Amino acid sequence: MAHSTGKIIGQRILGAIPSVIGVIIVTFLLTRALPGDPAAFFAGPAATAEAIAEVRATLGLDKTLPEQFFLYLGDLVRGDLGTSLTTGQTVVYDLATRLPASLELTLAGLVFAIALALPLGILAATKPNSWVDHGVRLLATAGVSLPTFFTGLFLIYLLYYRMGIVPAPLGRLDILYSAPPPVTGLYVIDSLLAGDLALFWAAASQLFLPAVTLGLFALAPLARVTRASMLGMLSSDFIRTARASGLPPRQVLFGYAFRNAMLPVITTLGVVFSFLLGANILVEKVFAWPGIGSYAVEALVASDYAPIQGFILTMALLYVVLNLLIDLLYVVIDPRAGVEA
Amino acid sequence: MTSTTFQHTRYVISENLVTFGAFALFLVLTLFAIFGEAIAPYDPLASNAAAALQPPSAAHWFGTDQLGRDILSRVMVATRLDLGIAVMAVALSFLVGSLLGTCAGYFGGWSDRIISRCIDTLMAFPLFVLAMGLVAALGNTVANIIYATAIINLPLYTRVVRSEILVRREAGFVEAARLTGNSEWRIMARHLFPNVLPVMMVHISLNMGWAILNAAGLSFIGLGVQPPTPEWGIMVAEGATYIVSGEWWLALFPGAVLMMAVFCFNLLGDGLRDLIDPRMRT
Amino acid sequence: MRRRRLIQTSMGFAAGLTLAGGLKACSSDDSASTSSSAPAETAEGGAESSDATLTVVQGGGFPNSLDLHRVGTNRPAYGVSWVMYDRLMTFGKKTLDDGSISYDYTVLEPELAESWEMAEDGMSVTFALRPDATFHDGTPVTASDVKWSFDRAVSIGGFPSFQMKAGALENPDQFEVVDDQTFKVNFLRPDKLTMMDMAVPIPVIINAKLVEPHLTEEDPWGAEWLNSNDAGSGAYTIKEYQPNERIVLERFEDWKSGPLPQIKEVILLNVPEPGNRRALLERGDIDVNFTVSEKDQTELDATGNFTVISTPIENCLYSVDMHANPQLGGEDNPFGDVKVRQAVSYAIPYDAIMDTALYGQAVPMYGGKAQPDTVAWPQPSPYTTDMEQAKALLAESGYPDGFETTLAFDTGTQEWAEPTVILIQEALAELGITVNIEKVPSANFRSVLVEKSRPMIINNFGGWLNYPDYFFFYAYHGQDATFNGSSYKNPEMDTKIEAALASEPGNPEYEENVKGFIEMAWQEVPRAPLVQPQLGVAMQPNVSGYQYWFHRQLDFRQLAKA
To answer: Do residues C114 and C129 make contact, with C-beta atoms less than 8 angstroms apart?
Structure first.
């Protein structure tokens, strides 16, 4: 099995190389096709033609496209993603500080979605075609039908502005707190590691609303897969056998059916995670969440090339890694998959 | 065949009122898309400074916006544009995706490898950012929003069609067609592709909802259609700034209609899935 | 010869100022920083210092560097630099007619320099530094730090050097260390702007010894290190710096260059959603909302629970610019016809724009006298909404049946510009002019301005210095600067502008020329003025001390919280 795992990793990574190269080229071309002249933009409004030319030279934008591309590649090889003109920091620094924020939000959204989708899915599967089943389906579909920015703003209005039961939408921490010493980069976990419960509570309560907003969006696929997978399991022979042999229904449901129904759910989880990571851009913008999504949007609006390139490349790599993880997880859960691969 | 389909349909509808409701909603939306402009109570573009930011009333059921335009009329008229964007985008990605997927699935070999590689590359992009980048680069016109939405949906169609074709490539009826002297293209167009269509319908319906959301998201970032064209996403995005100051109707009504439309397409997709293959229901 | 030189230098300064001020400088919804304070008594004097923490939110841009000499440093960054660093001198303050406080550019006051003395020949100035002033690391501020900082500003290139040059500060040789406490600036030529230019945000005094270890061959001025590190002697130190997210400033207890600020800690937060900023203020979670839309200014003020101060932005105008050349993009341009421009100026629904787009939070720039009787700028143009007049003018023009055209605006100014263009579109349709609206992303709008490729744009231009000749030099002069959105070229106009630039205010020749070019601008209307915008700030009632600055950022040092 170790052998096959290694082989999967190797195959996956080799197979991803052309895609990543494609992403690099397309992104480069896309940024250069953006309207507006970054030199004119960053030189300031009253800059003279010479001042703009000077800034253009500083930014290396006076070179031909192929030259710029090879310079970019050279920097990339050295791990240098350039500097963001919008934030004034290197792109590597920005991504490194912001990626954990996005991951934390996405993971929290996912946890919320799982916590809701699994019971709902199981409930629907135990009573197929009942009103419960239809209700679950309607609820999940409604979740995926909401524009996240609309849900987010509405929840802020209701729960913060009107009722005051959630903290202000001010990013990852309330203004009184400072970030915990970074270990994982996820404030919720780092604060626990630091043993600071107040900080944990502060981070968790900031996380609540954006995570719910994002999680609602992930409810539908998870609930559906859970339901389908459970339905399949419950009608399978071995469950019937277990039932027939008089095992308690709870044990049949959770002990046997649920455990075996998890495989497709976990696969879907991976897909949903990578989808959410891309979809949280709008949620980040609404909640002033300092993640990489809002970062990319700002860079795009300013035609700031380096951060856009860095962001898309990071996301592409994440996508590759995530797919790899899903495959490996498959192997762990279902050893047959590994043998086949 | 026809009568069994009919019976099956009737069975599905009677078993599933939700889908029936969704279908009715779809009809209403279509009616608004066609006749919205004619039945709208006010000119959706006419401003009226004296009636700015009025809450819902008998005269203005959905209230008025910051320029005194009637929100109900704007929402109604926007139906055509929003559905239009979704339909065009989905149709475009369906056509191109099907073509690519059929080629990849049927011919295999190099064409498969090249097409699959390209699609893999596309999949590796954060898709919403790619759409944003495309619209920003090409300019924010309706056509470009459609192209961008179509491109990011392309992988889905290509992949589904490819795998469906792959399964059927060696099937008996294909072999039979080949033996009776049909050309490759004819086999693909007349024999293989029609078999894939039902499965694709489900994806199309689900995808329509997603395309509407995508266009709305682009509007929220500021990459939507040009003002003063009414469009749900822009209306929600611009109305959102008024929520806190108490003018909730600016965002709520277009948002609710937007949600209903997406909801409707998602439920329809589910229903279609039941219709085509009850076992597929998830 | 002398006249010509003066023109050049004056132009230079104006350029620098406007450059720093920024294109969006004019719009109040632009990136801003915060500050606030009621027009009343402020915490003057260190005796009142307290442990108060001030929480400020801003949107539409967040300080993106601690080094304002860097390429791409945005305007909000001036607010942080302003309190983190000292300059040799600062400006005085005055009370405006409405009771609010503003800086006074006619008065220079000591900051890091205790005193200064002009040479008898007027060709140099000698500054005596405060003997007790120290940098944040405790080392004393010496004249060699000052020299290094000035050298950096004139040598690093880009905007800072440009701004320094505007005050005839061009060459490191001009700066002389006399002794540890004495710094001398030699003038290249007499220039009325030199002294002022040393009090603007650019010539900050940097701790040269602290930066020294970080200097490299490629980076001789330590730009990389200073970008995210504090090397100042100002009233506040950087306690926490999370780019684009939050900045925490802490009072520097040993600050000697002015009265110790009352606020001990300032927390500056980036909140992009305007609705959230308002909600935060209304919920009492923050003290100051510096980026307030016109609508929120009106409504927050109406609640009576907050201190809302709106100051008209000096020398700034929102306008509709119409491309004035006979040809545009190789085609005949209707706006080349002055009758068409006048017709449009009479068709604009000014009052509706004022009410629905700006919620009354601006100074109307229409419905004035036919001829200017003062040299104040901006002042209302004679145009009002008069459809009959507009139709008559269009009938007399070369386009009696109207035409199709495009009106572009910057997405960054969407809040007021979008309703404005829609109202204009509607009004011009009555004249038979079909207007297509084009919403241009901010990054691209700069290029639109530079290229002058659109027939009509919504422009918002303002300069730092409150002189009409500077405004006109950038907005109406045939040099065709970025802000001449109509690409207007008229030698007669140029002559008047240059003559005004070359003379001093108060001089009859100056007055005559200024009134002359203002009147000409009204007759020719390459730009139809709409309003003078206001810079708004909304604060909790216990916050006081707000002062309007030409850089349009908050000065945290002046704020106090009860």
So the answer is: yes
- CATH number of domain containing A131: 1.10.3720.10
Q: Please give the ipTM for the structure prediction.
A: 0.83
Q: What are phi and psi of C462, to 5 degrees?
A: -150, 145
Q: Give the C-alpha separation, C407 to C400, whole Å.
A: 20
Contacts of C190 (CB under 8 A, 6+ apart): C122, C123
Residue range of the domain that includes A237: 98-293
Q: Which of A307, A298, A234, A221 is nearest to A265 (CA)?
A: A221
Domain count, chain A: 2
Residue C225 touches partner A, C-beta closer than 8 Å: no
Beta bridge partners of C458: C320
Cα(C176)–Cα(C167) distance, integer angstroms: 17
Q: Chunked in runs of 10, what are the mean pLDDT values of chain A (341 residues)?
A: 70 83 90 82 70 80 89 89 84 91 93 92 85 86 85 86 84 79 87 88 91 89 86 81 81 77 80 80 86 87 87 88 79 56 34
Answer yes or no: is pLDDT of C409 > 90.
yes
Nearest CA in chain A to C16: A46
CB-CB: which of C158, C443, C483 is closest to A303? C443
Does domain B2-42+59-280 match CATH 1.10.3720.10?
yes
- Which of A203, A216, A202 lies closest to A280 in space, CA to CA? A216
* Chain B residues bordering chain C (beta-carbon distance below 8 Å): 45-47, 49, 52, 66-68, 136, 140, 222-223, 226-228, 238, 240-245
Do A260 and A314 lie in a common domain? no
Label each residue of C145-181 as H, E or C.
HHHHHHHHHHHCCHHHHHHHHHCCCCCHHHEEEEECC
Task: Give C-chain residues touching A169 at CB under 8 angstroms.
Answer: 271, 273, 276, 279
The number of beta carbons lying within 10 Å of the beta carbon of residue C242 is 18
- Is A93 domain-assigned? no
Hey, CA dihedral for B235, B237, B241, B244, is it positive or negative?
positive
Closest by Cα among A217, A334, A211 to A267: A334
Whether C232 and C206 have beta carbons less than 8 Å apart is answered as yes
- Which residues 195-254 of A have a C-beta within 8 angstroms of C? none
Pairwise CB contact (< 8 Å): A300 & B209: no
Residues A221 and A127 in one domain: yes
pLDDT band at C23 (very low <50, low <70, confident <90, very high): very low
